[in-house]
Amino acid sequence: MTKIMLYSAFAAYAASVLCYLLNVGLKRRSLQTVALLLVLIGFVIQTTQLGLRWNAAGFLPVTNLFATQFFFSWALAATYLYFELRYRIHASGLFVMFMNLLLLGSALPRDPQLPPLIPSLDTPLFTLHIIFSFVGYALFAMAFSLGVLYLFQRHIGAHQLPELSQLRKLNEEAIFLGFALFTLCMIAGSLWAYIAWGTYFSWNIKSVWSTLVWIFYAGMCHAKFIRRWQGSGYAWLSIAGFGVVLFTYLGIGLLLESNHPLE
Amino acid sequence: MATDKTFAQSLWSWCCSLKLTIVLASLATLLTMGGSLVMHFNPRVFSGMDMQVLNDWWQLRGADNLRLSWWLPAAGISSVLLALNTLCCLIDWLGKVKTRWRKSGEYCIHCGFILIVTAFCWGGFGGWRLPEQVLQVGQTLPLPELPGHYLRLDHFQPVIGDSGRPLDMLSDLSLLRGDLVLKQEQVKTNTPLIYGGLVVVPVSFGQRADGFRFATANGIIDLRQGAQLALADNGLDLQVLNFWPDAARSGAGQVVYRGDQLNNPAFEFVLSRAGQPLWRGWYLLREGLPQELRRHGVILRPTDPLGRYYSVLTANYDPGAYLALVGSVFIGVGVWLALFSFYYKRARGDRPDVA
Q: Are A32 and A48 within one domain?
C-alpha cells in the first residue's frame, strides 16, 4: 500500500513536470491547468499517506532518510501550491516540481518501513521542530528555484515566466517565510534539547550548521533593504543559502557523524 | 561643538547600520563554517565541548590548541558585536517607535537575539556541568559548585519494552540543601529536574552486582553488604562485611579489589558467637567455602548474583537559561507579529525601504 501510494504520487508529479515541459514548447494554458491538477493529485496522495503513516506510528514519522525525504517532498509540494494558488506563478512550477521529483525519486528505492521511536523523540516539541524545519527548508528550496528563475529571466528571458519584479517579490516572501518558520524550528529544537539533554545549544556539527542557516537567512532578511543586494544579488544569495541548507540536511546527515544521523 | 555632534551622530548611524550587520553576520558565519569543519575533524580537541561550559573547555583545551581553536573567540567576538549592533538598532527603533510601530515583530526578534547571546555568554562563563554521574539508590551526589547542595536518588525503575528494548528510566530524585528538600521530581526522558539554573537529565542506567543468592540448610537467602545470617542450630552469627563483584587473591594471600564488573565475586565475613568474633575472612565464590566456615557447619551454595540498578545522570547549571527562555519567547512572539505585519504590508502594497 505504501509503495503503491508513493509511486502514484511520484507518477503524478512526473506527469506534471512533463506537462510543464510541453507547455514551454506548446504554450497552451490547458497544459498549465492539467499540470497544476496533477500536482494537486500528487499532494493529496502524499498527504493521505503521511496521515496514514502518522496514525499507524503514533508519532510524526520523520526519523530516517526515507521519511525525511518524503516529508521534505510533501512540504515542497505544499509550498509550491501556496505560491501557485496565491500568485499564479505558472511556468515557474517546472523547476520547483522537477526538484520535488528528484527528491521523491531518491526516496523511492529506500525502505519505507516505520522505525521504532527513540524515547527522547516522543515529545510534541520534536514534532514541532520537524514540521517547522522541513517547511522552512521547503521555502528555502522555493527561494532557490525563484532565484535561479530570476537570473534566467534577467539574462535570457522567457514569456511564460513571471516578471522580474514579481520573481523578486516572491523570492523575498519565500525567504521571509522560510526564516520565520526556521526560527520557530530552532526555538522548538532548543527547548527540546534543554529538557532532553540539559543544554539548549550543542557544539555538535548539526546544531552549529543549523545556527549558521539561521544567521545566514537572518542576514538575507536584512540584505533585501540594501540596494546592491537586491535583484541578482539576492538571487545569488538564495542559491548560496540553499547550498548551506542542503549541506545541513544531507551533507552532515550522510557524510559526517552527527546527532541527527540519516540512514 | 557642531562637529562633535555630527561625529556622534555619524558614529551612532554606523553602529546601527545594516551594512555593519551584514558584515558582522557574514564574518561570524564564515568563521563558524570553517571552524565547524575543523571541530569535526579534530575530535581530540573538540569532542569534550558539550561536557563542559565554554569557558572551562577553553581553559582546559582551547587555549592550548590555538592553531585549531583561534576561530572560536573570533566568531564569538563577531557574534557579540553583532548583538551589540542589534542592540543599537533596537535602541534607535525605540526612539522612533511612534512612527515605526509596525516593525514591532522584527524588533521583538532583535530583542530576543540580544537576550539569547547574553544568556549564552552568561552560561558559558558562569555555569558548570557534571556529566554522566553514577548514582545508586539512596546515594547522594554533592554539587561542588553549589556548596551544601546534594542530589539524592530515592528510587530507580527502568522501563523495558516487550522486546527487551529499554524505553525509559525513572529516577526519583531529591535536590537537597543540607537536610532541606528543595525539590523532588521523577526524572525521566524529556522530564528533567529543573531548579533555578540547575537542570538534571537522565543519560542511561546500568546494573551492578551487590550480593549473591545462596541456598542454605534453612532455605534461600540473599546476602549483601551488612546482611546478617543467624545459624540457629549452634547459636552462630554470620555477618557480611563486604561484597566485591570482582576480587583476586594476591601472592601474599591478601584479597584485593579488581572492579565492579561481576567476574570473581568475594564476600568478607565475620563469624561470631554471642557477639564474640570467632573468625574473619574472605570467601571467594570460585574457591569454595572457606575451611573455617565448613568446620562450624555453615552451608552456603551460591545460586544467582543479586544486582541493583544505578542511574546515570547529568547535572548542568546555566545561570542564563531563564534569560534564554525569555529571549526565545520574544523571538517567537516577534515571528508571529512579523508574519502578520508582512501580509498586512503586502496587502497595502508596501515595498521594503532601500538603504
A: yes
